[in-house]
Amino acid sequence: MSRPGPAADGAAVTLDRAAVRLGGRTIWSHVSLTVARGDFVAVLGPNGAGKSTLVKALLGVLPVAAGTVSVLGREPGDANAAIGYLPQRRSFDAAARIRGVDLVQLGLDGDRWGIPIPGTRKRRQSSARVAEVIELVGATRYAREPIGELSGGEQQRLLIAQALVRRPSLLLLDEPLDSLDLPSQVSVAALVGEICRREQVAVLLVAHDINPILGYLDRVLYLAGGGAVEGTPEDVITSETLSRLYGAPIEVLRASDGRLVVVGQPEAPFVHGDRHA
Amino acid sequence: MPEAAIFQGLSWNPLTDLDRLVSYPFMVHALEAGTIVAFMAGVTGWFVVLRRQTFVGHTLSVIAFPGAAAATLAGLPLAVGYFGFCACGALALGGIGGSRRGLSAESASIGSLQALALALGFLFVSLYHGILSGLDSLLFGTFLGITSRQVLLLLVVAVATVSFVAVVARPLVFASVDADVARARGVPVRLLGLGFLLVLGLSVAETSQITGALLVFALLVTPAATAHELTSRPGLGIALSVGLALGVTWLGLALAYFSTYPVGFYVTSLSFALYVLVRLGRGAVGRRRATARFAPEVA
């Protein structure tokens, strides 16, 4: 079903009228999206709209029921070596006796069999790459401490380093800002934006709240009601577009500081930026 | 007679005592077997603690008991019962659980399996109207009467198991601490979990033959848990785990040789004492470090 379309040339992700079914239920359908290299695209939507499902479909973990999906010009699942994947909220409790630097190292060569021999040129090169990417995310100071003893923001930086260590062409970040405190959300969002520009990586970031990433985004994909709208944040996060998508009256308010607040979604009380509400 | 040697007591001359320790073949075999078992338990145990599978490990050790009892009943070598039951138990547990999250969620069914295993063990023991003192060594270990053939079998199983662990070490650590990302990277997480359960079953079977079924943790978990307390570096942690397991085994065997108490008691007490010491020490260091980390931010 999912053959790379002609638009796949140079594009990191292409979805053409794609649909995913889980247990007989259609999660979403007619979703089309193109993410070019260096693009920063946010996937937004209410709980249960299928945001993580989209990430799993791109990884080839879930099959695509209709339409076509191509990832880095190949079938989903075939290009995973070139994808940096950060799954939805992983936290490490205090008993997790593994260091951040080991976790990043696993991201580099954790899928290889056999024991690495210390002191070889290859080993030194891989250690250097791990140190370099930890420096890039600004985690050098605490990378050698057990990950369970670090704060949520510190853990998230190391997990981003793990996703980046193989110099991926595509970053799939599933709610990396979830359950971080506000300063950490802002700094991690800035970090992802900077990596996207500097390394020319395509970034697909699943978020609950658009506001911390609003300044870095190129486009958003808003999933709701079994469908999706794609476009710039200014085009998509509007009362008209979201009302059409939800099939219910939605109001988008712009706060004086530029933050967007979405009111009236037909689910449990939820607004963008509701931390301040 | 071995018993005579045991009751000789210490001469308090280290060289003489060391010499006496290895003067009987049965003791040499016990030291060889203990060394092999401790090495294997140290390696496997580090992964057991990392994967938080101590409950599964305990269940397998309880399954080892009916294995040994059944072998005695059928007139087969004990090792056959240990390895057979533990391997089958590991596969059964793999069927119940699968993923790591699944295993803890299925703890009720694992616990039920444990109770059944214990009941079966007692059934086999009572069906076998032999000398009941055998029950003690099945449960709490013995180092008497280990033959060179048994040592060879222990060595073959240990070499095979440790080699397997060495080959899968990195993906196994990856799958243990970060299953989602490992799966996305193409690591066969579920298959590795099953493979490791089998390794665990074989390790439990080996360890049971020295410490007895009930004291397996003394070698399989306590030294590894101590190593995890001391360092979070994987390579160093495994080396420490092996070193501690070897240390308590050698010392435990020597103490058992020169006294009347069973080896399982010594090995268990020694590893427990070490664990407590390290926990207390780390608590103190942790508090000091926490204050040190906090202080510059205040200043």
Order of helices and strands of chain B: HHHHHHHHHHHHHHH
How large, in whole angstroms, is the Cα Rg of chain A?
19 Å
Figure out the total of helices of chain B: 15
Specify the oligomeric state.
heterodimer
Order of adjacent strands in the largest pleated sheet of chain A: 5-6-7-3-8-9
> In total, how many beta strands of chain A?
11
Number of helices of chain A: 7
- Predict the CATH topology of chain A: Rossmann fold
Q: Spans of chain B of 5+ residues with little confidence (pLDDT < 50)?
A: 1-7, 99-103, 295-299
Portion in helices of chain A: 25-40%
Highest CATH level, the class of chain A = Alpha Beta
Instruction: Assign the CATH class of chain B.
Output: Mainly Alpha
Query: Low-confidence parts of chain A lasting 5 or more residues at pLDDT below 50?
Result: 1-8, 268-277
Distance between the ends of chain A: 45 Å
Could you say which overall geometry of chain B the principal axes of the C-alpha atoms support? globular
CA radius of gyration of chain B is: 20 Å
Count of distinct structural domains of chain B: 1
Concise summary:
With 277 residues, chain A is of the alpha/beta class. Chain A is 27% helix and 25% strand. Mean pLDDT of chain B is 84; it is low at 1-7, 99-103 and 295-299.
Protein architecture, described:
The complex is a heterodimer of chains A (277) and B (299). Chain A has 277 residues and is of the alpha/beta class. Chain A has a single domain, classed as 3-Layer(aba) Sandwich (Rossmann fold), CATH 3.40.50. Chain A has seven helices and eleven strands. Chain A has a six-stranded mixed β-sheet with strand order 5-6-7-3-8-9, sandwiched between helices. A three-stranded antiparallel β-sheet of chain A has the order 2-1-4, with helices on one face. In chain A, a hairpin with a 5-residue loop joins strand 10 and strand 11. In chain A, helix 2 runs parallel beside helix 4 and helix 3 crosses helix 4. The relative contact order of chain A is 0.16. The N terminus and C terminus of chain A are likely disordered. With 299 residues, chain B is mainly alpha-helical. Chain B has a single domain, classed as ABC transporter involved in vitamin B12 uptake, BtuC (Orthogonal Bundle). The N and C termini of chain B lie far apart (71 Å). Chains A and B meet through strand 5 and helix 2 of A and helix 9, helix 10 and helix 14 of B.
